[in-house]
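Why this split exists: single-chain examples teach little about how molecules sit against one another. For that reason, every record in the complexes split bundles all components of an assembly together and asks for one structure covering all of them. Below is a record exactly as it appears in the raw files.
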Amino acid sequence: MTDTAPPQEKSGKRGLLVTLEIDSRLLGMIGAFVLLCLAFNFATDGRFLTPRNIFNLSIQTVSVAIMATGMVFVIVMRHIDLSVGALLAFCSATMGVMQVWVLPQTLGLGIGHPLIAPITIVVGLIAGTLVGAANGWLIGYQRIPAFIVTLGGLLIWRNFGWYESSGQTLGPLDSTILNFGGIDGTLGETLSWVVGVLAAASAVWALWRARANKVHHGFPVKPMWAEVALAGLTIASVMGFVWLLNSYQMPVARMKRMFEARGEVMPEGFTAGYGLPISVLLLIVVVVAMTVVARRTRFGRYIFAAGGNPDAAELSGINTRMLTVKVFALMGFLCALSAVVAQARQTYHTNDIGTLDELRVIAAAVIGGTALAGGIGTIYGAILGAIIMQSLQSGMAMVGVDAPFQNIVVGLVLVLAVWIDIQYRKRLGEKI
Amino acid sequence: MTAPLVELRNVSIAFGGIKAVDHVTVDLHPGEVVGLLGHNGAGKSTLIKCLSGAYQADAGEIFIDGEKVEIKNPRDARALNIETIYQTLALADNLDAASNLFLGRELITPMGFVDDAAMEAETRKIMGRLNPNFRKFKEPVKALSGGQRQSVAIARAVYFNARILIMDEPTAALGPQETQMVAELIQELKAQGLGIFLIEHDIHNVMKLCDRASVMKNGQLVGTVDVKDVTDEDILGMIILGKMPDRAR
């Protein structure tokens, strides 16, 4: 595969992991994450691993996680993007101005018009993509180092957004947009189960297709029990996650209001879970799409090739300059998508939205095993990195760690994660 | 006499005032191996990069089958069935053999996705022919030995039906057995009617593999000789002193 696969077809030592074809680095990260959760859960007397907290963790992670998937591509190509937080603020300001001032007032659509949300989002996505493409053009065609271009962008775009919004807090936001915020936009229990079943079914179908394809070409395949175990594990994780989110019960007062809004009276003893937040669903869609792009498209293959050996990519006839433009445009698009989620979560736009997100996004990608030297990185790793970062931060807040120590710990974890990764690669390098 | 497969005519290229290649003319016929010789910095690699599309010549013309062509980038060269095996082995270390072999020309499923399984199957086929001992299909090529990497690079050139093959010191990083493998491969490709430009330092290999040798010194062509008309010492004289041997004059 394009990423670092564990050594296969090697000497007779075929462990369980090799048979299951599971990345041992992924397993290490999951192990570290589980330990982290258990430790926090112990320290908070069981408050960390409640449906409520897991729900909150999920929606807090989305914005950074969406951008982290794009950052994987940027870093794999040996670039960096320091402007993502500022770009998020610019897109958020643009969309805030659109939905609060331009569309309802200047264009006279009025508050709550159904076209406001789609137009706003499309304008935001276009703005983000264009800024990203401009960054990519400066980097790819004008050969200005990405560090400099995006460092400039860090200063430029947040303040461009400030100028656009005249520094004002923009709100209230359109009600459809608010659905992307998390707690105000969930699928409810039934729909969440439906999505869960569909997701699990497509995952199993993908596994089966991969096997069928290998058999078709006469390649060695995993033993059937390994396939079944992997499929079972997938189904269990998906369904478990849905079950957890469904277990987070809506407060009675909130449900009463919802019934009153529909002109009904809430029956006695009625309960409902929140279910899957729309923002998390959006993240899942982004992750699947970006994983497919990374592994199964020419675009993704060229990103990894250019990161592994830029000269080789160029000599193979790949237009690496245009590729740089596309990668940064995609990064800009994802920043705009994150901006929708971020502004909806705080229910209004402010100038400081997404401040320091560039560091969280880069840290998530790097903790997730993306190598700054280029050529190596996975989407799922970056997501796990984002989740670990967010868990650390909110876990420490719950435990009551002093604010300075929270940042010190996050910084140490970042350095430690990269050090472990280097040691791991070294060991792998010796074995090969 | 038919038109040569390739002719580079009066090619010049300069870098910041230094003439790396100065009015050099070389040609190549089908089924022929032409060695390009000279000291480091004589301009061999630079000359050949004008043909592979990595550089563009400042002056001069390139003819394929007697027709003038423009080669602006590696894509143009590939479209003319010119394949290059670079001295630095232009492989992406982080990708596996199949991804490297098909880099820039991936096989695609009807849905438009890269077809890794089909590419691996094709790679297994061609490697079975070129290097039957090759097993590491799943690993990134950085895990391969020099010879294995070289066979991936050669497989890439051969798979896409090259008519003109440029090999820049293909055996420089290889052990004796692997060098032998490459030598046999060159003979086989030659028999299939390919034209091969071989940049080579080892006189012994030149005498063994090449039909003609073109020697360069300080960016200029010293001359081109039939290998069977000259001795090792004659060629060394051309490389070191930059003068043609007496009997070939």
